[in-house]
Amino acid sequence: MNPYFVLTRRALSAxxxxxxxxxxxGPLSAEPVKVLNYAFPIAExxxxxxxxxxxxSRTLTAAIFESLYRYDHLARPVQIKPLVASAMPEVSTDFxxxxxxxxxxxxxxxxPAFKGARRELTAHDFVYMYKRFADPALKSPGWSSxxxxxxxGLAALRRQAMDKKKPFDYDKEIEGLRALDRYTLQIKTExxxxxxxxxxxxxxxxxxxxxxEVVEHYGDKIAEHPVGTGPFLLKSWRRSSxxxxxxxxxxxxxxxxxxxTADDAEGQALQxxxxxxxxxxxDQIRIAIIEEAQPRWxxxxxxxxxxxxxxxxxxxxxxxxxxxxAPNLAKKGMQAYRSIGADATLTVFNLExxxxxxxxxxxxxxxxxxxxxIDVGREIRLVRRGQAIPAQSQMVPHxxxxxxxxxxxxxxxxxxxxxxLLDLYGYVMRDGWRIQPNGQxxxxxxxxxxxxxxxxxxxLWLKNLSAIGIKVEIKAAKWPENLKSARxxxxxxxGVGSSASxxxxxxxxxxxxxxxxxxxxxxxxxxxxxxxxYDELQGMADGPEREALFLQAKRIxxxxxxxxxxxxxxxxxxxxxxxxxxxxxxxxxxxxxxxDIDESLRPAR
Length: 605
Prior knowledge:
Blueprint: H1 3-24, E1 35-40, H2 55-64, E2 69-71, E3 80-82, E4 90-91, E5 97-101, H3 123-132, H4 143-149, H5 154-164, E6 177-181, E7 184-188, H6 196-201, H7 204-207, H8 212-218, E8 232-238, E9 242-247, H9 265-274, E10 284-289, H10 293-301, E11 307-308, H11 316-319, H12 327-331, E12 335-340, E13 343-349, H13 361-373, H14 376-383, E14 388-390, H15 415-424, E15 429-430, E16 433-434, E17 443-448, H16 452-466, E18 471-476, H17 479-487, E19 493-499, H18 506-509, H19 528-539, H20 544-560, E20 563-575, E21 579-580, E22 596-597
Parallel strand pairs: 1-10, 17-18, 17-19
Antiparallel strand pairs: 2-3, 4-5, 5-7, 6-7, 8-9, 9-10, 11-20, 12-20, 13-19, 13-20, 14-20, 15-16, 21-22
Helix pairs in contact: 13-15, 19-20
């Protein structure tokens, strides 16, 4: 027999089997698979919301989990709407009782933890999710935020587990967190909480419903197995390398319902184009981790990425000279988006560190001298390529408490005054470098990351601090490692970025709130005066009296300098012509379901 004939016959047989399999699986879809290719500049830390504080992990969880309420993606100023709730909450006149009705017929994504059954979302899932932040065994960085909401009985339940050294009692009912029935959740707080809707009830990145069966099924691997009711689910994960999310095939019918104001041309155009479209509009999201700016930039230019969030500062003049899209990119149909972010870059001082910490006059003077020695103007011009404005306090744009005309020492560059402070408080020169008042060498250790922008910031630090006689050592590590060190208090100085997650400026001030130490308060700053102000701000309605307290709080932060706030970044994003519908979110992370991909415009590979 002719061997060529045999091979051909086998090939035909294989093709026939393949065709048979395709026929059995149903007709081929005429619609192309819509894929969003996207790169993070920083690696994720995991997918368990109770364990997260970093922006990029929270961007992922916001696509998988769903909270009770959400922000309208188009509305400016922001508006909150129901997500899995059936209506806005019923709120008592004293802002201490909140009753939420949940839509029936919403289901978690299929998972082996449910043993083949469809698992409906209930009020009990939210009770369980909120309690996880209080479980001392989890050491949640979000506990401080949960604690200050003052849910009646929750802190006591946490203390009981700590005092008796027993597992947290998830089954014990508490007055502040109850499922009245299958679809009704009731929350009660110890004191008035007029902004509980935006601080606790909205925000799928942290406060999305979690099923107890899933947590118990996966145990200490739960951070690798997120299961929510959201529009996407985790398909695959190579840690610090690639994350793939896919459309949740069991996601309920939900439609684009953004409502832009009449004077918002961009929002009106998006509303007209997408109103009534079923969500999500894309099928898959492929996220690469590309920490270095140049490869990330080139990957976008080569059409390997569909979206470039936060154009790296070193390429902004090529991408958007004078704040406008470069002609060569415009000719390709690319789209540019530019805005001042509700964020800040800042230096964190560990107030438990024996060199820079403490509240004694000489330690406060050292931190203030360091602040005065940092040339933020040069940082903005050279490192950030003009893509930022100087910060004057802890408050960030677009939030209550922020005032564009507020001016403070936080924004000053004055090396002469820095040296005078050091001289006055005993940090004198010896052999060309400053020593501590106790005669020991003064050496600052700054944690940093091994990327290009961090290296530029490190060089500026070394130059600025050596100019006033202070020696600095740089300790480079990956961002998740530095975060772990900071949360554990095992650092001296670290530079980070922070983004607001809500319109209320109190979230920025939480970085100085004593009970939040080790969580949002990475500096571990403790001030009874500040804590008293913070607690007052919690229960006050917005208005002039509250703004006056914000001013006092800002001045305390400037006086003791647990953080040196550097700048508020101007955020420039770029999108390929086939990515349609992007709009930068202000305080929320879930935007992937609101965009579409026109695969016919994508170049062939």
